[in-house]
Amino acid sequence: MAKRQPQATAQSDGAPPAAPVLVVDQLRKSFRKRFTQRVAVLNGASLIVRPGEIVGLVGENGSGKSTLMKIVAGMMHSDSGSVDLSGRLGYCPQVPELWDKLTVREHFQLFAAAYNLEPAVAEERQAALLDELNFGRYLEYLTVNLSGGTRQKLNLALSLLHDPDLLLLDEPYAGFDWETYLRFWEMSEARRDKSMAILIVSHLIGEQSRLSRLYTLKDGRCIES
Amino acid sequence: MHRELTLSRRPALLFAREHLRSALTLALLITLPPIFVIAASAVLSPFATALGGNVAGQQASALGAGWAVAFLAGALGYFQTASSRDADRRLARAGLGAFRTATGRLLSSLVICVLLTLVAATALWLKQPIPHLAHTLLAMLAYAAIYLGIGTAVGAVVTDELAGSLAVVFVFILDVFAGPGMAPPAHGLGQLLTPSRYAGELLLEAGAGTSSSAADWRQAAISVLVALAAALTVFWLSARRRT
């Protein structure tokens, strides 16, 4: 089992910790239950993530982990609180949000356009990700014809295409086989070592040893452990 | 604006390609216009008489072709909105932006509307001569644009695909059977039930080989602009972050 990583690589030599790439402060979010009732999901959630960290976020089903990730990713509004991000953001949602009748290659083309990547750079990164995640043979497949695991690989690859500074992973390995799961952690740790900051929603106790720090989301608040 | 259109071109082409890869879409695109043209020429005249209208002959076939375009464009608008919300939002947040994503959706829809119009016009041409070709094509395109707006507006409020499809069909039936040629002219609130009436007027006049008045062109153009603005707004709202 891997050892727990230091809190921030910059601290090991006595230097001050690196400036956070993500600061979430006092986020509140509630959803309408019936016409007049509202259910609070986030109730002042706060966390920070620094470069070179893999930070875990755990909590019971329905505790608000995915809601928090969506707010940080800019997919959803919060009721109050703030999210301060610096650098490029990559977001890998829990459920692959893809277009069924587009091929894997066309997905890369769309996201390369969104990330404003030069064609040559996009091609190079696409090839590297296909190789890393071992799904290059599916390049011309429509995503509707892909297995759940391969869809998840594409989902992850799209979030990494622009080499983000902060990567949000919302249970990114659902459907991965064991070999791909281990490969996923190798990839994540390699990117962490190059100063990428990673915030990952996880349910697996065994993974906690791979994390720099861990937040538990309980009663709408993040508790660091 | 030119820059936005350029940046939206690749998403537009891919969105259009995605839609046209659906076997059901292609089957409907090929079969529905001829069915509407043939069925309209056969049954529309007595039906119109029963409703208080007077469409008949070549005008009925032309109207049938326009209805086919409207029906398919309404379904297109609905599914463009309802089926891709989350993925579009992700793309917008990845850096494309809500407006460019929406413009891409609108451009892709317009490409398909042109295709629908050409297929319907071909079906009509195979059935009968088309005396005013440009007039007919523009009237059909107006039908397509108006129903694109209606389909996207329904898609914005109805997420269930069966319920949404039925809602588009409901609006279509109310509109066309209360529209020009089929029923006496509507006034006041009744006009709201017939959003495609000016496109219908243009098509009936084209089918009869007569020119349309400037007022009809102007009103049809206003209907088209309102519908396209509605479609762009719905696509933009869908691509923005959720509340």
Mean pLDDT of chain B: 90
Number of separate structural domains of chain A: 2
| Total discrete domains of chain B | 1
Shape of chain B: globular
Helix coverage percent of chain A: 25-40%
Fill in the CATH topology of the largest domain in chain A. Answer: Rossmann fold
- Main sheet record of chain A: 6 strands, mixed
Please, what is the CATH homologous superfamily of the largest domain in chain A? Answer: P-loop containing nucleotide triphosphate hydrolases
The structural class of chain A is alpha/beta
The low-confidence parts of chain A are 1-11
Helix content of chain B: over 70%
Order of helices and strands of chain A: EEEHEEHHHEHEEE
Oligomer: heterodimer
Distance between the termini of chain B: 28 Å
Short description:
Chain A has 225 residues and is an alpha/beta fold. Chain A has helices at 65-73, 104-114, 119-133, 148-160, 178-193, and strands at 22-32, 38-49, 54-58, 80-85, 89-92, 166-170, 197-201, 213-218, 221-224.
Write the layout of secondary structure elements.
The complex is a heterodimer of chains A (225) and B (243).
Chain A: E1 22-32, E2 38-49, E3 54-58, H1 65-73, E4 80-85, E5 89-92, H2 104-114, H3 119-133, H4 148-160, E6 166-170, H5 178-193, E7 197-201, E8 213-218, E9 221-224
Parallel strand pairs in A: 3-7, 3-8, 5-6, 6-7
Antiparallel strand pairs in A: 1-2, 1-4, 8-9
Chain B: H1 2-7, H2 9-20, H3 23-51, H4 57-82, H5 85-96, H6 98-127, H7 133-157, H8 161-177, H9 197-208, H10 214-239
